[in-house]
Amino acid sequence: MLTSSLTMAPTKIFPNRVISEPNLTDICAIANPCQNNGTCIFVWKKNTHYCKCQPGYTGNNCTEKIDFDPCASNPCQNGATCTAKVQQGKPTYECYCAPGFGGPKCDQRPCDVNPCLHNGTCRTTAGFSSYFCDCKDGYGGKNCDIVSLCLANLSNAFSTTLPLQRLLLKHLIMA
């Protein structure tokens, strides 16, 4: 590591005071210690230097690379495409998922979280981007979350399954 040097010039004696002038060596002028096109700035008052690093580098001599590409770490999974973008002044990314996957990092399938209630069976749609539930008898709705009752039709010719809410409404109308 290169450092600035400080030597003392000969002492000058004036009436009532003695002055010793420092002999400063500008390390930036001799050998630029800043790497990766960093700019060396010599600070005379402190006989030291600092490096003004190019974007993407940091450290005392600009030797540490900063990863500004948020996609460089491959955050998107399962064949997804990562697109770098800036949001509120900070680098971020967005994953464009391959068919069959979802979630911020494309690491989820629709049925992985088991959205179907009451022992319903989750089935993915063509392309695997969404799902539907095969509900057990007595349940309905997108996630098998609606309780249904089987009612006999007044003619007894067939029966129909109605959600509980409709059953209550029908009961109130018939009463």
UniProtKB/TrEMBL annotation:
GO molecular function, one term: calcium ion binding
Entries under Pfam families matching the protein: EGF (PF00008)
Subcellular location: Cell membrane
Keyword Transmembrane helix: yes
SMART domains linked: EGF (SM00181), EGF_CA (SM00179)
Residue ranges of domain EGF-like in the record: 24-63, 67-104, 107-145
Primary location group: membrane
Signal peptide limits: none
InterPro entries assigned to the protein according to its UniProt record, in alphabetical order: EGF, EGF-like_Ca-bd_dom, Notch_Cell-Fate_Det
Disulfide bonds: C34-C51, C53-C62, C116-C133, C135-C144
Biological process terms in GO annotation: cell communication; signaling
GO CC, alphabetical: plasma membrane
Keyword Disulfide bond assigned: yes
Keywords: Calcium, Cell membrane, Disulfide bond, EGF-like domain, Glycoprotein, Membrane, Repeat, Signal, Transmembrane, Transmembrane helix
Membrane topology category: Single-pass type I membrane protein
Alphabetical list of PANTHER family matching this protein: CRUMBS FAMILY MEMBER
Protein name: EGF-like domain-containing protein
